[in-house]
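FAQ: What does a ligand-bound record look like?

Like this one, built around phosphoric acid mono(formamide)ester:
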Amino acid sequence: MQTKHLITVKDLSVEEIKYLQSLFKDFKEGKKARLDGRAILLFLESSTRTRLSFEIALRDLGMEPYYIGKGESSIEKGETFKDTIKTISALGFRVLVFRVPFVLYPYESYLVEDITLINAGDGTHQHPTQGLIDLFTAMEHYPSLENLKILFVGDILHSRVFRSSAELFRLFGAQLGVCGPATLIPSDLSPFGEVMVFDNVDEGIEWADLVIYLRLQEERFKENYINSKESYFLQFGLTKERYRKLKGYFMHPGPVNVYVDVDGEVLYGEKSLVLQQVRNGPYVRKAVIYGLLDKH
Ligand code: CP
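The answer part, i.e. the structure of the complex:
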């Protein structure tokens, strides 16, 4: 692969995405590959599936993962993120997987010589490996994404998953729709091409072949964007009745807030790809790490 880092999905060409998908499939079918060296998982925000699946991927590839959580690095003492990267690189680490509460853009000045950077979520900006999970999981369940109608429901405004997944789905020819409270829909959706905006989730669900629910990112709320979680669930959530009307599958990158985003009784129903997304996580991350490091 040309690129040595994965900060945004825009770092990847269509050919590189297809190459990553072939690696993902090979790893899922049991292909073995070895890499050496040490990797840092620097997570300044909480995580279950991203952190664990990166750790599984690194160990399976033969690399040595080290974990630093919130409050455990010298960032707390005022060291900048840029100097932290330089320090980690000087210690001989080969990979830095990072999750941070801020947007890393522009990011060119953060890319240093000897270390590969992989974004595991930066503020409201990007979560590229989640985007690849969503893309490859959808490709496993639909014969083609060309003109597939994909509806994102929820907090679009703060969603780094939306910004990554929507970009990837668009690249493969899908039609995009969004639905949520008007306060949580970005005023400018033009970077994603032609996007249908639905005020009414029932109309959106009738339109869509695949529905992707997104969590309310309350940790990023600067004001009260919704009246209450109860009214939000009734107006937009995946209730049992809406679940029955789904034409295809639904996905959710997790973590799910049950009875806010999705009814707990349908969360793992037969139209749910939620656990499939989780299961694909380590293979996607293995493909990304291997793809980025193999030639560098
Ligand atoms: N999808 C996702 O990023 O989940 P975690 O916060 O659990 O890693």
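Follow-up question: can I read anything off the structure? Yes, for example: The chain has nine helices and nine strands.
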